[in-house]
Task: structure prediction
Amino acid sequence: MTTILKIGGSVLTDKNKMSVAKPDAIARIAREIGDGNGKGLVLIHGAGSFGHHQAKEYRLTEGLNDWSIKGMLPTHNAVKALNKMIIDALQMSGVDALPVHPLSCCTLKDGRIEHMCLDVIEMMLRANIVPVMHGDVAMDSVKGANILSGDQLVVYLARELKADSVGEGTNVDGVLDRQMQVIKEITPASITEIGGTLSGSGGVDVTGGMHGKIMELMTLAGAGIPSRVFNAEKPGNVTKFLKNELKEGTFIRGE
Result:
């Protein structure tokens, strides 16, 4: 069984302050992963305040030029620093985890994943090692360079690895409507109506916020892979998700 779990940057960092982590939250998430079923797990984390500010300052989504080239390493180093914190916390919780940086294994075409070396991820999974990936800067065959979001990684890996379970842990109870009530389920039939109620994330986010997240997950639903958006700030929810016991949040499925 293969599980793709993304923990949003808003859970792990203060998105309004550059490169400020939430160490207590990181430690708790790591413990909950340790308490859950880590076998077959690919963990993806958002960049949060580690990377979004640099990507915006150097205008990395606008393509490769003299200015953006100078921003590639600071952006990558920022997300890599957060990645190390998370892996260290996982190791302390008894989870065998290793980093996989998209900059070194992934290419884009006009902002979408064109190729990714999956061999190392598949070998880690067979060895019961948790690959830990993240949003990152990446080379782009059209624009030269671009930003790869963690949400796009979720969809790509779920498809390529034929995932059985997909989760997006956020800082809210699920996808909220205009009355701030949790939408229990989203299907292709309801997405048009619901789409207008979705808003972007708070803080600096160059990857589309909640609307971008849901549209990515809808493409998965169309491929027959359901997913769940849930509140990862609520203690115990990550463990429940990994044990397939979580009923809270928003369930996204095909027809």
Observations:
- The CA atoms of residues 63 and 143 lie 5 Å apart.
